[in-house]
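Example (one chain per record):
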Amino acid sequence: MSTRRPRSDADRVGHIRGAAAEIAAIVAAGRETFDASSIHLRATERLLGIIGEATRCLSEEFVAARPALQAHRARGMRNFLAHQYDDVDPQRVWDAATLSVPAFVEALDPPGVTSPAADSGGPDV
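Predicted structure:
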């Protein structure tokens, strides 16, 4: 029996921000490095999966309070990567990493709303 406490929205937001920061570090090496290394691609896929799963676990209230947060797209990417792993397009992963993830993280804190992660100092991992 697990003694772990249930994860809060603050925990999940912390996981999303952490995965996004790791993705940013990967893509900072540039597209040429990304294309030349299956490790960069696979790591980015995994981190996108973490973002999607953490997003799936956010409360309905949290997501509803952030209309710009395209939670369904993050969950959809996670599902695609998990179930269609043999049909992943590196261009789609790159685009998600460089375009979608930064916009997604920005939408976690729309104007006038404070992120639970900012309130609590981040997740307990």
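Caption: Confidence is low (pLDDT under 50) at residues 117-125.
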